[in-house]
Amino acid sequence: MDICKNSLTHEHKEMNIVIVGHVDHGKSTVIGRLLADTGTLPEGKLDAIRELCRRTSKPFEYAFLLDALKDERAQGITIDVARSFFKTEKRKYIIIDAPGHIEFLKNMITGASRAEAALLVIDAHEGIKENSRRHGYMLSMLGIKQVAVLINKLDLIHESEREGVYKSITAEYGAFLQQIELKPSCFIPISAAKGYNIAEKTGNMSWYTGPTVLEALDNFTEVLPLNDLPFRMWVQDTYKFTAQNDRRRIVAGTVSSGKLTVGDEIIFLPSGKKTFVKSIETFNEAPKNAVGTGYATGFCMTEQIYAKRGELISIIGQNSPLTGNRFKASVFWLGKEPLTPDKSYKIKIGSAQVGCCLEAVTGVLNAATLEGIEQSFVERHEVAQCVFRLDRPLAFDLAGQFEETVRFVLIDGYEIAGGGIITDLADDTDLGKNLVRRDIKWLKSSISREERECYYKQKAQLVVLTGKTQTDKKSIAIDLEKKLLESGKIAYYLGIGNLLYGVDADIKSEDSLNTPEERQEHIRRLGEVANIMLDAGNILIVTASELGSGELDTLRQIITTDHILTVWVGPAVNRIRDFDLSLDDGDTDVAGELFKAITETPE
Predict the structure, then answer these.
(1) What is the DSSP-derived secondary structure letter of residue 245?
(2) Which end of the chain is more exposed for a tag (fewer CB within 10 A), N or C?
(3) CB 84 within 8 A of CB 35
(4) Which of 162, 121, 116 is nearest to 31 (CA)?
(5) What are the C-alpha distances in Å from 519 to residues 270, 273, 496, 549, 573?
(6) β-pairing, 382-396 with 322-333?
């Protein structure tokens, strides 16, 4: 286990490395030694620090080379993420020094999220600490698979005992990492203070035959260049110009991965709107035909569609993101109050930010001991496998694919209280994947929904009336349909029975009861029929008994417009918060109230 794997790498400009470990285990000293031993320090820097230590009667430490904050030097701990630069004959490195103290785990996660590989430092004299395990778990959770473990401060161990201490820590920590499916490339015995096994094999440790730290770094493999990945770009904003007859609508954002070229056919998710890139817009630059990863840009479209902030753009024909409003995730919670199902939070992925709630906790883990805990909430510094439900669908990728479309933060009030990665769709079906395929294959009419709405002088929308089985929803829907038609609107009432014994006849059970699977498919087909009716510019009224919040979420996910009005008809129940309106069927004119709600909606 102490031999790093050799790997061939292509020419690469630089690599991001994060260094983590418990406080005072020597991370900053390791970096200082790497800077000194690779000749990366500015001329005279080392001598200046030595002279400062002499004048202040302090023993010289290589960690002083990194101290950028005064209170760090005073307290002897790293409190923020510091970046350092050095190079070997093979490539350049950006090494990120992440905090080791438990109170600064949020900063550690921020630093590690930018890394391609990691060095994890353990003090041989002090041994494996809780944060050593916790940091290992964080690396695993963030998808960092290339890790070298440095067993530091072996100069404090008697020569005759060094090999035994090294093997003991290697066995114990290696077993821990195996539990979290993180296989380190090597365990290296070092002394950062003395320079043992940093750049050269030293320290009278002939029993160790593996690489030095610098060799281990050079053996890491660069990730696939982001320009070679499928295209991803979050919509930051849309700008529309009117002066001097300028009719451009420019979609602005920063390219997260891949390349965008004039002529590419793109899709906005989760809305499913498609168009072509007409031009790439620049400011005080020569015109561009293509832009790549990291470029802040704007572009015009051949079709002037409206794209909202938070939509995710991909190129049709490339690997597409998923869409959904329920997903599974690994979460690390940092909030002062526990993460609980009875509270609303905000989730931020890229430029998208929506309300969400914790639907279920499927497992809680003590990140230090890996002990499982059965509970329905997540305490501070705990790692959990969770299911989240969003207020509306979003687009995203799954862990192991991308970075900016997989990782998210959770906001409690006005503070970032947690973070995590999306691991899977929460639904057992492939609804999200099917919707992406549907939207890509959708054959658009030459007349857009927006043009139909303008011609019909109405906003296409779905009105869902639900309530207890005995509630007379049908009479209200018929009355509402008539009121809308008499006012000049184009409306249609679709009773659920019309669907069940027509479109759904192949799956309708002989008796009146449906299995959960059948009911789920009924809802899916209702959503698809409604989506077609709304694309035609209609106001569609639907009645169905006792729709649950999950079924309403399915409809919202399937229908490619935000104009869905959900109404509970009848006495109030605990689930009223899942609906836009609640109307008691004992009122004299329920249809009239609905008519006002629909016709007063801005068009």
Answers:
(1) G
(2) C
(3) yes
(4) 121
(5) 24, 29, 12, 14, 22
(6) antiparallel
CA distance 243 to 241: 6
Q: Which residues pair with 382 in a beta bridge?
A: 366
- 556/468 same-domain check: yes
Residue 321 covered by a domain:
no
d(CA 60, CA 38): 19
Looking at residue 198, the DSSP 8-state letter turns out to be T
Query: Is residue 3 situated within a structural domain?
Result: no
- CATH number of the domain that residue 108 is part of: 3.40.50.300
Task: Indicate if 147 and 264 belong to the same structural domain.
Answer: no
Centre a 10 Å sphere on the Cβ of residue 346 and count the other Cβ atoms it contains: 18
- Write out residues in the chain with pLDDT < 50, as ranges: 1-12, 68-81, 100-105, 108, 110-112, 602-603
* Domain annotation covers residue 117: yes
Ranges of H-type helices in 38-158:
45-55, 70-75, 105-112, 130-141
Domain final residue, candidates 186, 219, 252: 219
Q: Where are the beta strands (DSSP E) in 503-591?
A: 539-543, 564-569, 581-583
Q: Examine residue 323 and state whether it is found in any structural domain, yes or no.
A: no
Kindly report, residue by residue over 328-377, the tens digit of the pLDDT. Answer: 988 888 888 999 998 999 999 989 999 999 999 988 876 556 666 788 99
Rg (CA), the chain: 30
Residue 297 sits in the same domain as residue 182: no
Output the CA–CA distances (angstroms, integers) from residue 316 to 272, 306, 307, 562, in the order listed: 11, 18, 17, 23
For residue 131, give the nearest of 109, 150, 105, 96 by alpha carbon. 105
Residue 8: per-residue pLDDT: 33
Q: With 0-12 CB in 10 A as exposed, 13-18 as middle and 19+ as buried, what is 308? A: middle
Q: How far apart are CA 260 and CA 230, in angstroms?
A: 10
The residue range of the domain holding 489 is: 445-599
Q: Residue 446 contacts by C-beta under 8 Å, 6 or more apart in sequence?
A: none
DSSP state of 143: T
**pLDDT computed for residue 137 by the predictor:** 81
pLDDT digits (tens, 9 = 90+) for 32-47: 788 877 776 656 666 6
Shared domain for 69 and 211, answered yes or no, is yes
Is 28 found in the same domain as 170?
yes
Q: What is the DSSP letter of 283?
A: S
Predicted pLDDT at 114: 59
Choose among 188, 186, 108: nearest CA to 152. Answer: 188
Does one domain contain both 28 and 120? yes
What CATH number does the domain containing 282 carry? 2.40.30.10
In terms of domains, do 205 and 238 share one? no
Inter-residue contact 462 to 351 (CB < 8 Å)? no
Number of structural domains the chain divides into: 4
Q: In 519-593, at which residue ranges do the beta strands (DSSP E only) sit?
A: 539-543, 564-569, 581-583
421 and 454 share one domain = no
**Model pTM?**
0.63
Distance CA 321, CA 313 (A): 9
Domain boundary, last residue among 433, 467, 495? 433
pLDDT of residue 45: 63
CB-based burial label for 108 (10 Å; 0-12, 13-18, 19+): buried
